[in-house]
């Protein structure tokens, strides 16, 4: 059974994170990614720390298995190569500011007229329409403006950035969804489509809870630290040697939790979820007077045995060594380029499909322009 | 031009968030969603606060436009209806714990034998394989165990939950990607596929930066509050009336920022990004001695004019009134069920496609079992 996107070629003009994250997903699903980089410097993330053996570990993981050709889209000779690539590609991805592709002569309308089957996927800070379309944006700008920083952080404290770059990443994921839908649709209609994803837009649907609270109550929610805003007990707790989570989402689980910890399950102050929310700080102290007496491992084993959802708060080193994460093949070595070189590590593919073989390693990321000869040869020899 | 997933029918057994988030995306792309709910109570989120007119605003937004039939999959009469639905569906979504569908007689292997074109999408806490497959999980459990809480929060402070439920949501997005890839692939092979998404798995790829740091340096990163860990100045700053972001990602932008704020662009303590990172707290104080003298609106206008990426830290009420977000149609009213009833609000569709008309409102969410007659009638009248 071939991989779902077997035979699909992606021309990837994107750099940094949102676009490359999208093309990595398409690659995991079986597509071939041709990274079209600007000459001399290439993708900005080639210069992003940390480095191993002079190469960016960040770039190496995010671009593992892609192919690179360096083209200056203002130079006639390179434009001629790009035109030939467009004739062979299924998907074009770009993350320029709106208008740049049009000025280069590669706007969607003209490309669609020449290559009606081409799927054109764009991701930008604010999208191709609206009053702020031309403004620059970064992950943190859309995290701020889209609201997620206002609901992240300590209760009563200043806004906190989500540690993961969800401003870029969620946008890249929506772009992948649009591209995949367009691929399916093209099988029916024979026509490509343009997809226009805005990082700011993408922040809104992921805050379904905050939208419901803000619109139904008139009061936008604030940050609540490490606890669920409307379910109790559902937060981190301190053990003797670190933090762990207890997620007792209903009365039955709360009763089990009390029995397990030796607390009084009939305490009227905690009889309902509403009362537990009203007395959340008191309940937390009562639970921690017990949990601080034993290490995290003890509580994970005890709560697991009682069927109460729990988990250790892990740092990234611990997460990358977690037996479940490893068993699911979510941590992959990146194969060094010529049998030597730095040992990079990349995330595995979270889309487990019966039609997609699991990988045990990722191929190396390309050197800048490192696949030029092979790509030109492929253009000369149509399949 | 029909919507990309026009003609596609999804049987949606999922409840709460990850699965319904996925089916909402498929619906935005044109699919018809038949929500198969358990009798009497239905989807748990029908009972989630906040409420308007006795209905959950949370459920109303996340299930807008879906159709509902209540079926008890342990009862022969309801199983007979479900079997007929399977014969007409393209996609089945479920979020039970692993093994539940097999015990009901609806495991993938037996379904694939009977309905070879059916695409089977599953999302669970830990996936269908690995030592912890059978354990229960919630968003916060996978946020904790997957590492994102360890990089979110104040510098040196305790772990903080991401305010958005990215444990559920990113998993639901990966499920949508897998389903879309399988739909495309089915056009080529005639066969469906099983997709097995784990919420814990899905936390790993979104932390590309933390993985690079943990594996290349041996030191897992911690939280950095509201600043970028390796670029300075790139964080929130205080103005007279609130917080805003300055994202000066390179030397040129930093020079412009100094000129704009009246700071010395030649100060040797800030000559490179590395030095600015070393002196991040001093630089922040110097910038805030200026920015605290004017309101946020002043600084947004001033930095916009200078071409420096910036944005207000908005709460959800402000975000939902943001002219750019409104211009992009990202806030939609939910049409009341019979011309009356509560005025719910839902997020718009962030996948803007040339082949997908924009919506100006979302249809209402279904009452429990509210579409039974229409669905049974459809089963009796093959298209």
Walk me through what this model shows.
The structure is a homodimer of 383-residue chains. With 383 residues, chain A is α/β, with parallel strands linked by helices. In chain A, the strands form 4 sheets. A 6-stranded parallel beta sheet of chain A has the order 5-2-1-6-7-8, sandwiched between helices. A 3-stranded antiparallel beta sheet of chain A has the order 9-10-11, with helices on one face. The longest helix of chain A is centred in the middle third of the chain and has 24 residues, at 166-189. Chain A folds into 2 domains: 9-206 and 324-380, 3-Layer(aba) Sandwich (Rossmann fold); 234-314, formyl-coa transferase, domain 3. Chain A starts with 8 loop residues before the first strand and ends with a helix. Chain A has 16 helices and 14 strands. Chains A and B meet through helix 1, strand 3, helix 2, helix 6 and helix 7 of A and helix 1, strand 3, helix 2, helix 6 and helix 7 of B. Strand 14 of chain A pairs antiparallel with strand 8 of chain B. Chains A, B: One of its GO terms (molecular function) is CoA-transferase activity. Chains A, B: It holds the Pfam family CoA_transf_3.
């Amino acid at each position: 059974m071939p991989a779902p996107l077997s035979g699909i070629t992606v021309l990837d003009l994107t750099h940094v994170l949102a676009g490359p994250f999208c093309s990595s997903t398409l690659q995991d699903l079986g597509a071939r990614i041709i990274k079209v980089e600007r000459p001399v410097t290439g993708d900005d993330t080639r210069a992003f720390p940390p480095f191993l053996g002079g190469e960016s570990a960040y770039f190496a993981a995010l671009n593992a298995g892609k192919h690179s050709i360096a083209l200056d889209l203002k130079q006639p000779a390179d434009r001629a190569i790009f035109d030939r690539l467009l004739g062979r590609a299924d998907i074009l991805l770009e993350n320029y500011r709106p208008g740049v592709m049009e000025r280069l002569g590669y706007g969607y309308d003209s490309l669609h007229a020449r290559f009606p089957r081409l799927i054109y996927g764009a991701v930008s800070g604010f999208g191709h329409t609206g009053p702020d379309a031309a403004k620059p944006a970064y992950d943190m700008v859309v995290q701020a403006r889209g609201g997620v920083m206002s609901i992240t952080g300590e209760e009563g404290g200043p806004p906190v950035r989500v540690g993961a770059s969800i401003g870029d990443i969620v946008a890249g994921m929506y772009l992948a969804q649009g591209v995949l839908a367009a691929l399916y649709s093209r099988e029916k209609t024979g026509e490509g489509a343009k997809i226009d994803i805005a990082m700011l837009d993408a922040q809104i649907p992921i805050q379904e809870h905050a939208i419901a609270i803000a619109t139904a109550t008139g009061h936008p929610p604030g940050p609540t630290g490490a606890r669920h805003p409307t379910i109790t007990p559902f937060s981190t707790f301190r053990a003797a040697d670190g933090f762990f989570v207890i997620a007792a989402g209903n009365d039955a689980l709360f009763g089990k939790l009390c029995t397990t910890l030796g607390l009084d399950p009939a305490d009227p102050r905690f009889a309902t979820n509403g009362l537990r929310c009203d007395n959340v700080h008191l309940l937390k102290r009562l639970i921690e007077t017990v949990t601080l007496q034993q290490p995290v491992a003890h509580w994970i084993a005890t709560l697991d045995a009682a069927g109460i959802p729990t988990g250790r708060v892990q740092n990234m080193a611990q997460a990358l060594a977690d037996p479940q994460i490893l068993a699911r093949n979510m941590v992959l070595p990146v194969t060094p380029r010529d049998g030597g070189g730095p040992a990079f590590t990349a995330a595995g593919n979270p889309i487990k499909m019966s039609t997609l073989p699991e990988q045990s390693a990722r191929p190396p990321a390309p050197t800048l322009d490192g696949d030029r000869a092979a790509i030109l040869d492929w253009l000369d020899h149509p399949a």
